[in-house]
From TrEMBL:
The lineage of its organism: Eukaryota, Fungi, Dikarya, Ascomycota, Saccharomycotina. CDD domains: HP_PGM_like. Gene3D superfamilies: 2.60.40.4370, Phosphoglycerate mutase-like. This is Related to Transcription factor tau 55 kDa subunit. It comes from Saccharomycodes ludwigii. InterPro entries: His_Pase_superF_clade-1, His_PPase_superfam, Phosphatase_SH3-domain, Tfc7/tau55, TFIIIC_triple_barrel. Pfam families: His_Phos_1, TFIIIC_sub6. Residues 259-288, 313-349, 388-408 are annotated as: Disordered. One of its GO terms (molecular function) is phosphatase activity. Residues 298-404 form the Transcription factor TFIIIC triple barrel domain. Residues 270-286 have a biased composition (Polar residues). It comes from the Eukaryota.
Length: 429
């Protein structure tokens, strides 16, 4: 028999991903060898029950893990359910970049077996070390070369030592999971898309891929021969359908920071701050002290804009990342210059304020009145304010100035193509 099915999963949600802790020290004493958060442990249980629910002829017969603690934690519940041992292999270990302050080396099996309940039963005492990541760190190219070297040696070792095994499951890290998949599919670059649609390998926390061998010989992908002259096909990409919260913490090689590192966490927090902490696949709003469903309290920023009431052209106001705004009729507005260019101070501007445009019910202040908004669909933070049709040419300028606030109260305020319905709100802003 030959190996014909390979599952590759990423470890679960790490404790250092939590926004407010707790941050337990590495159980192994190895730098950066952090354990899973309790949320990650729950994911490991969900992964185990998902695999165990598959027909027996689809379940893995051999379990392989990176020797880092979080990966063993992730595969351990499955080992207990299937009553199988875990084989540690350095070839599927973590990817650490060159010039990193420290390149962690995994703990020895004898220590790891003591750290897990019944570890001597479920963790093999010998570690496979045919392929070892560069101890000085790796580049995108060198991790690809590591995985291209790994597959032939690994599969040959399995088929010689376990001739009855056809199905394997590996739990590893995001970068290694991607590089292993790309190598198995015959690619030689981790940044290549899988197809002309730009598809990439998804690698959320506890996500799983599935590859099958079609038994075809001498099949090539471009100019590169597939592993052991076998044609491998990916039939599951980053599956998280079995996880309660779906895909979280996706990482790929386009991310400049190492997967799961503190640097990556800072980048994700910056991205979420800019997007108003909207929930999505990269959510890090998990707090072990508050519960997984609690959300952060965000601070609203008020931006004051003076709208000239004498202009007949629609004014388009776009919220910028730095808090400044610009109007589309060549009238420039910013928080340091309340008067638009070319508009005199005596033009009797109307005060316009908004807050919480990323929320379901933003507050809008026009003149002296405050309104609560209701979005049909929030797709951005671009406002288009159009004049009331009752404001016609030939009306007395002074009369228009006096009635400006009333007119503005009836204006339509739109976000791109979606309408914001305003209801008067009496609480002062």
């Amino acid at each position: 028999m030959v190996v014909n099915t390979i599952y590759i999963a990423r470890h679960g949600y790490r404790s250092n991903w939590l926004p407010n802790g707790p941050y337990p020290p590495p159980p192994t004493g190895v730098d950066s060898d952090v354990p899973l958060a309790s949320h990650g442990e729950n994911q490991a249980q969900e992964l185990a029950h998902y695999i165990h629910s598959l027909p027996e002829e689809e379940q893995p017969q051999l379990l392989i893990s990176s020797p880092f603690y979080r990966c063993i934690q992730t595969i351990y519940p499955l080992a207990q359910l299937l009553d199988k041992t875990i084989q540690l292999d350095t070839g599927v270990g973590e990817y650490y970049k060159e010039k990193r302050y420290c390149i962690p080396q995994p703990a020895k099996p004898e220590l790891l077996r003591k750290l897990f309940l019944h570890g001597e039963k479920y963790i093999e005492k010998d570690m496979w070390c045919e392929v070892i990541p560069n101890k000085l760190g790796e580049t995108d190219d060198s991790i690809m070369q590591r995985c291209l070297k790994f597959w032939p040696q690994f599969i040959n070792k399995v088929e010689r030592g376990f001739p009855a095994v056809e199905r394997i499951m590996i739990v590893t890290h995001a970068a290694t999971k991607i590089a292993l998949g790309m190598a198995l599919l015959g690619f030689d670059n981790v940044l290549q898309p899988l197809d002309n649609k730009g598809t990439i390998i998804r690698s959320g926390a506890c996500s799983i891929d599935k590859y099958i061998c079609t038994e075809e010989q001498n099949i090539t992908n471009g100019n590169k021969l597939n592993v052991l002259n076998r044609h491998w096909v990916m039939i599951m990409n980053g599956n998280t359908e079995f996880l309660t919260k779906g895909e979280e913490m996706h990482w790929d090689f386009r991310t400049k920071a190492e997967a799961g590192s503190d640097e990556e966490m800072k980048l994700k927090k910056q991205q979420q701050n800019m997007s108003g902490f909207n929930k999505g696949s990269d959510s890090i709003n998990i707090d072990e002290n508050k519960g997984a469903d609690d959300e952060y309290i965000t601070e609203d920023v008020f931006v004051t804009i003076q709208l000239p009431v004498t202009s007949k052209n629609p004014t388009k106001i776009t919220k910028k990342d730095n808090g400044n705004t610009k109007s589309s009729n060549s009238t420039s507005l910013d928080k340091d210059n309340n008067n638009p260019n070319g508009i005199e101070d005596d033009d009797d501007p109307t005060i316009f304020q908004y807050s919480g445009l990323d929320s379901e019910s933003p507050l809008i202040k026009i003149g002296d009145k405050i309104y609560r908004g209701e979005w049909n669909k929030l797709v951005g933070t671009e406002l288009v304010i159009t004049r009331n049709e009752s404001e016609k040419e030939g009306e007395d300028t002074q009369k228009k100035s006096k009635e400006a606030n009333n007119d503005l109260e009836e204006h339509n305020i739109k976000i791109v193509k979606d309408v914001l319905k305003l209801t008067e709100y009496n609480t002062p802003m």
